[in-house]
Design a protein that fits this description.
It holds the Pfam family Mur_ligase_C. One of its GO terms (molecular function) is acid-amino acid ligase activity. It comes from Edaphobacter acidisoli. InterPro entries: Mpl, Mur-like_cat_sf, Mur_ligase_C, Mur_ligase_C_dom_sf, Mur_ligase_cen, Mur_ligase_N, MurCDEF_pg_biosynth. The protein is an alpha/beta fold. It folds into three domains: 89 residues, Rossmann fold (3-Layer(aba) Sandwich); 213 residues, UDP-N-acetylmuramoyl-L-alanine:D-glutamate ligase (3-Layer(aba) Sandwich); 145 residues, Mur ligase, C-terminal domain (Protein-Tyrosine Phosphatase, Chain A). Helix content is 31%, strand content 25%. It contains 14 helices and 23 strands. It has a ten-stranded mixed sheet, sandwiched between helices. Helix 8 packs antiparallel against helix 9. The C terminus is likely disordered.
Length: 478
């Protein structure tokens, strides 16, 4: 691609699109874009980069006419900007296609894929490479992560070295390319964390999801490697026909990479990692949750196979600082701890609440959920959602985000979830929006409570409104 193009991104505030915007700017292009709504952390990152974001969508945003338009996968026919692009035949492409053509050719792409844990695991892998590069500069990683990695304070880096670490998303690529984005990345090696039914808006069933991951595995060359979770029959099926070595990781006896002697002390996890039954390393991780121990183990396994030392792996994991909106403490007010987590699936909700139970033993745990992802807005996961939310002591459920866009027969019924929780003796209520939740919840909170705010979107700015309500309250939180 020639330098100094004006590249315009429709849907620029998505996590991958905002990262791509920064990468294209680093590569020397003039970058602008638009979105329906911008919210942190990606809006903050774009502002810090000085990349202009137009809101809302409008045909005039494309003046002056850009050289190339990148169409986000959330953009459909009928979007006024897309319609102008098509009418005027302005050159356009997908995020995944330009990422491959501009940044991955000639590199060593390492892709982290799976239904859960992609962002955190990719962040861990990038930090391992970063620590290793202190003694071997050739290992300094380029990366694209679907969130802001706190060790880097960014979601991307572009360097001239070969390693390029990517979060591999199974969601579709664009309105004109319905295949998964990760099929554009042609990885040299992959991590496969988990495989479950997700993205019910584009995948009709679990078999379709598994087919997508099987196709990713089929792209790995014979000289490559697959590091795959050992606790999922779906993962086992997806890696069964790999042409490259497959290394399983987890808790099972006989796994190539086995977690043993796991213990949690003061918010830090410690474990012994075995490699083919032999002690490989003693590892520590200052991030809550058994699921994060598995994420760290996967990152360690892939890094070790790429020649990174045990010392660098151990140092990196011990100093890992998580990812924005992944078990992120947003505020502590009057002894009330407010946590932000990007939960998008009942399993993610479950693992988040389990991690918080372990990190805050004895505290009352309040779950505040916005059904916003295409998965959580559908009733196919209703029973699973009840089971996950039942781990909380109290639940506040917002109305389904843009419920009118989901057919009524497929739409989650929050009142059913609440009724099922109440039947179990768990106080729960449906409230229309963030303001109503704050008004109802703030007066009831007391010292040592932990509030888990679960959403993959802006959630009416509840992350600021709840701490402000607690700060302004004149009463004692006892």
């Amino acid at each position: 691609m020639q330098s100094s193009k004006h590249i315009y991104l429709i849907g620029i505030c998505g996590t991958a699109m905002a990262s791509l915007a920064g990468m294209l700017q680093v590569a020397g292009h003039r970058v602008t874009g638009s979105d329906a709504a911008a919210y942190p952390p990606m809006s903050d990152q774009l502002a810090a980069l000085g990349i202009a974001v137009h809101q809302p969508y409008a045909e005039t945003n494309l003046n002056p006419r850009p050289d190339l338009v990148v169409v986000g996968n959330a953009i459909s026919r009928g979007n006024v900007e897309l319609e102008r692009v098509l009418d005027e035949r302005i050159p356009f492409c997908s995020m995944a296609a330009i990422l491959h053509d501009e940044f991955l050719v000639g590199r060593e792409p390492l892709v982290v894929a799976g239904t859960h844990g992609k962002t955190t695991t990719t962040s861990m892998l990038a930090w391992i490479y970063e620590v290793a590069s202190r003694t071997n500069p050739a290992l300094a990683p380029s990366f694209l992560i679907g969130g802001v990695a706190e060790n880097f304070a960014t979601s991307f880096k572009v360097r001239p070295t070969r390693p390029f670490l990517l979060e591999g998303d199974e969601y579709d690529t664009a309105f004109f390319d319905k295949g998964p984005k990760f099929l554009h990345y042609f990885p040299d090696a992959i991590i496969l964390t988990h495989v479950e039914y997700d993205h019910a808006d584009i995948y009709p069933d679990l078999e379709a999801v598994k087919t997508a991951f099987k196709r990713l595995v089929n792209l790995v060359p014979r000289r490559g490697r697959v590091v795959a979770f050992d606790g999922s029959a779906n993962v086992t099926e997806c890696v069964a026909r790999a042409f490259c070595p497959v290394e399983r990781y987890g808790f099972a006896e006989g796994s190539h990479w086995r977690v043993t002697s796991l213990r949690h002390e003061g918010g830090v996890s410690h474990w012994t990692l075995l490699r083919s039954g032999e002690r490989f390393a003693e590892l520590s991780l200052p991030v809550a949750g058994e699921h994060n121990v598995l994420n760290a183990t996967a990152a360690a396994a892939l890094a070790a196979g790429q020649g990174i030392s045990v010392a660098a792996i151990a140092e990196a994991l011990a100093s890992f600082r998580s990812v924005k909106r992944r078990l992120e403490v947003r505020a502590v007010v009057g002894g009330v701890t407010i946590i932000d987590d990007f939960a998008h699936h009942p399993t993610a909700v479950r693992e988040t609440l389990r991690a918080l139970r372990g990190a805050y033993p004895g505290s009352r745990l309040i779950a505040v959920l916005e059904p916003r992802s295409n998965t959580l807005r559908r009733n196919v996961f209703e029973a699973d959602l009840v089971e996950s939310l039942a781990l909380a002591d109290r639940v506040a459920l917002a109305a389904v985000f843009k419920s009118e866009s989901i057919p009524e027969a497929e739409r989650l019924a929050p009142e059913n979830v609440i009724a099922a929780l109440n039947a179990r003796g768990i106080p729960a209520a449906v409230l229309p929006d963030a303001d109503a939740i704050v008004a109802a919840l703030a007066p009831e909170l007391r010292e040592s409570d932990v509030v888990a705010i679960l959403s993959n979107g802006g959630f009416g700015d509840i992350y600021h409104k709840l701490p402000e309500a607690l700060t302004l309250s004149s009463r004692s939180l006892l």
